[in-house]
Amino acid sequence: MSVIFARGGAAAAILVVSAQGALADLSAQDVWGDWKAYLTSTGYTVSGTEAVSGSTLTISDVSMAMPIPEEDGTGTISFPEIQFIENGDGTVNVLLPAEFPMGFEFSGDGETFAGKLIYSHDGNPMKVAGDDENMSYDYTSSKVSLTLDELSADGEAVPAEAAKVQVIMNDVVTKSTMKVAGARSYDQTMTASSLTYDMGFNDPEGEGNGSFKGALQGLSFTGTGTVPDGLESPDMAALLEAGFAFDGTFTFTGGNGAISGMDGSESFAMESNSQGGAFTVAMDKQHLTYDISQVATNVNISGSEIPFPLALSMAETGFKLMMPLAKSEEEQDFALGVTLRDFAVPEMLWGMVDPTGQLPHDPATVILDLAGKGKVLFDLFDPKAMEAVEKGEEQPGELNALTVKQLQVSAAGAELTGTGDFTFNNEDLTSFDGMPAPAGVANLKLVGANTLIDKLIGMGLMSDSDAMGARMMMGMLAVPGEGEDTLTSKIEISEDGQIHANGQRIK
Fold first, then answer.
1. Which of 70, 321, 403, 503 places its Cα 20 to 30 Å from the Cα of 163?
2. Closest Cα to residue 333, out of 344, 342, 321, 341?
3. Which residues of 224-258 are buried (b: 16+ CB within 10 A; e: fewer)?
């Protein structure tokens, strides 16, 4: 579905973007012609009936059709009219109706899915300035909404009460700069005071239903992109190879959400809120990057399968991923990170594990930050190659190097921290039972482990024999460090497969 999102982003950049302020003459036909060129360059087939009256160019019965990968079929987006109005000062206003339907239809594998969305705004135009190689858009609206109006599956209408979708944005300001010089590049910004969403479904043939509601405050978006020109095959692989790229960051200052569902006698509900977060995504022919973070998050969960309501809180959550996309015999960078800082659970849950309060009930933290180098040995956008990898007929890639930039795990009064740096020999798959042979060093520090073991024994959660085994393992791999109940360990793996712990050979 990545093709849908990429092309959908291209359409959004045309339909809802905005502006810069260059000074040059533009005609209505210049702007419309550039829209068509932009959309067709990303795979759309664009059609519409053109009519000129004075300084106004009206395009009616507008249709944008896009091919989607074979398994997903095809899709179309249509709406009744766009007006391009020359202002007499070299700028052009693009006017959409204050309310209009947007149709969509997807088909594939013998199934069809169609519907209609109602798009509404306060009727303000987008103002376009510049010249035919450098256009800027400026748009504001006090309110923009998108509401599901019709839905059908395989030609049969879905009852209105079976599905609900409504998204509303307030105080929207968007600005965009579009440059054409071989490849097309754009810079975008968007702000909105709030976004609310209300989605739900009811199974007309059963007892199931679901609801998704929430709001975000203080929205902001900045992004850049490059769209290549003159593609013969506008699929994702061809787009990336020709230079398609984007980089965008979305932030918000606060938010809340609620999810609930019921299936017969079973029910589930979750409510959450936070004090803001950020989401960054970037993609080019070499890499795909995600970076997601959120602060001061609270979650409340209840349900028929949960014995009592759960109230969880997290000071910070985060996930980041950078992965190579291009098939190559050369090493490429990758990264992976997970952050769960100050994760707290309710005392009721602690009471089930530690009724006498022997363990510290401080919030837990898990942080892992990895970076490395590897090879991608198949084309990620080739369905046949993907199938061969899934069947085990081809190797997906190689791990060549891994750096543990940060490791931190703290809970119940104990804490493990560490760093490490390793390389991997993919020619040696025997020394470590089918895994590429590593070589490198890891430095670890463990604080509070013996105290935690003593308390677990006293609570009856660990036997003396299990504790003895754990302590023997720690004695073999670690040495006393500075401070009370502190162990350190330096694990070295040599290229010939030997493993040393603090200078003592253990393999």
1. 70
2. 321
3. ebbbbeebeebbbbebbebbbbbebebbbebbebe
Tokens coding 192: 């909105």
- β 92-95/74-86 pair status: antiparallel
d(CA 62, CA 77): 8
SS (H, E, C) 162-196: HEEEEEEEEEEEEEEEEEEECEEEEEEEEEEEEEE
Look-up: residue for tokens 């890499």? 287
Report the predicted TM-score, pTM, of the whole model to 2 decimal places.
0.85
Q: How far apart (Å, rounded) are the C-alpha atoms in residues 353 and 55?
A: 76
- In sequence order, the β-bridge partners of residue 343 are 314, 364
DSSP of 272-311: EEES-EEEEEEE-SSEEEEEEEEEEEEEEEEETTSSS-EE
CA dihedral 186, 190, 195, 200 (to 10 degrees): 0
Pair 84, 76: CB distance under 8 Å: no
Tokens 């339909």 locate to: 15
What distance in Å separates the CA atoms of residue 37 and residue 180, rounded to the nearest whole number? 10
Each residue's pLDDT tens digit, 385-435: 888 888 888 888 999 999 999 999 999 999 999 999 999 999 998 989 889
Domain boundaries of the chain, sorted by first residue: 1-178
Strands 163-181 and 134-153: antiparallel
373, 386, 497: which is closest to 431 by C-alpha? 497
Dihedral sign computed on CA atoms, order 168, 189, 10, 142: positive
CB 117 within 8 A of CB 100: no
Whether the CB-CB separation of 254 and 275 falls below 8 Å is answered with: yes
Per-residue pLDDT of 262-305, as tens digits, reads 988 899 999 999 999 999 999 998 899 999 999 999 999 999 98
